[in-house]
Amino acid sequence: MKAVDVRAMTLDQIDDEVLKLKKEQFNLRFQRATGQLENTSRVRVIRRDVARLKTIAAQKRAGSMPEVAPKPKAEPKPKAAKPKAEKPTSDKPKSKKPQSAKSRKAGAKKTAAKKSK
Predict the structure, then answer these.
(1) Could you say which DSSP state residue 108 is in?
(2) Sorting pLDDT into bands at 50, 70 and 90, what band is 67?
(3) pTM for the full model?
């Protein structure tokens, strides 16, 4: 249900619609509990419709209906090309993840073996 449709309704119609949706929500809960619910997304739609109806009803009761004005079209700003900064390069390749103690020992043994040759 769209908000525009709800705003066109009277408070009594909104209350009746909320009551109808609450009953449907109750039935859907039982269907889910017994494993008979086929359209699971309907539970979410009903919950949001109830919230939408209650929100608009509260706004009408308070007398503070928000006026929806069309947004003026803004002209797109041209984007200026920014020079990219160069990343500093280092001699050592950075390791992706920290080494474990076991792999550090194995690496040290290989390095020592290369130096002794």
Answers:
(1) H
(2) low
(3) 0.54
